[in-house]
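WARN no homologs supplied; continuing
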Amino acid sequence: MVASTSGLAMLSRLPAIAESACALASDPADGERLAQRLDLAVAGRRLRILNLHLTHLSGPDSARLRTRQLAAALCWAGEDLAAGLVVAGDLNAGAADPTLAALKAQVGFEAATFLGPRADRSGPAIDHLVLQEPGGWGVACRFRALDKVDPEGWLPSDHAAVVVDLTAA
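OK structure emitted
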């Protein structure tokens, strides 16, 4: 269990081999920013998941902060990496944004459009899931979930879920 005010959580039906959190650089106007790391054994194979919520602030200083946060998180996630690495979370930048250049988009990039309180599905795609290091894993399918308005006009969250099914490569 990792206490967090960053709005981060990871749930798994599989037991964790290891789990930890790392504080990221932050701005007082933005609040706490963490990276969460979870190592799992899936069908005898290892998989590491890095969960992030990068700064939502805008402007050049914030872009530099987001770049630093991602670089630090990827460095930390790469320590003792003996498997595939999935990077997921609210990165608060679109896939083409220079602040996300460290992600290996060519490996398997998926983004969910920020839904916002209007539920109009406009705005940049800021929720991402990337198979950063395959480590013997491949992407079988990807999709968005929890992105439909209920009969009363409510969404489950202001973000859609980004879902990936992985398969042994």
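Residues 106-120 have pLDDT under 50 and may be disordered.
OK
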